[in-house]
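User: Run a structure prediction on this.
Assistant: Running it now.
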Amino acid sequence: MVEASRTSNKVMTLFVRLWFATGAAACVAGCSQRGEPAKAPAIVAPIAAVSPSDDGRPSKGGAKGKEHSAALEQLRTAKLEVRVDRYHTFSLLLPDAPHWTRVNFWGVKSAAGFRYGKAHHGLVTAFVRDVDHSSDPRACVKEFEHWAKPRIDTFEVDVELDKPTAFGWRDTTVEVQSARAHIATLAINEDYAAVYAAYPAWKGKCLVIGIAVPGQEDMGRAMQVRDRFATEVLPKVEILADHPPKESY
């Protein structure tokens, strides 16, 4: 299994701004609710997929152009394989799974984190949250949004939420929220595609899993990657233990 590493605070800040803003509570940051899913921009002709290298060290900036498009094409088409958290309490499928590096995020503790390539062509993060009614998926979403709200109130994020979708999971229904976000600060001007779902995984505990994909110069393909996670990855999350991870990192 790929060794753990730490990813840059700047990149995690991007991810936090984007993913947290996809919740309904994030409308204070400037979001517009859409009645229908956003139409993905046209994508350029497919580029031969190449698995990005990752030396496990923090990145000093993302790569754009052909390198990013090639990585997205790999995520869009590669075989899905299982990855698990450190304590083997849950599993999820990832495209081109061997080339995702396990990461910790500075400033925000997570139950699991993965990045695709040193340039962060994709980020996957899982959180465990306490809830009073863990059998209700909406309780999981509401608690996550409540926790996230103070962390995004000061962020300059414009978000477009798609109409939520849902899938059957165990004996309940889990809601999936997809979004596009634009982050504009003095240092950052970037578009992202994101999706997350909240699972009533354990008694009094919820598992929240989110994916963020930088659009850079290929937003159409980034949205296709996001949609693949929404339809092929999130519905197949499995709980492997009767307790959550022992700790977050």
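The domain at 5-52+59-239 is CATH 3.40.1000.10 (Protein Transport Mog1p; Chain A).
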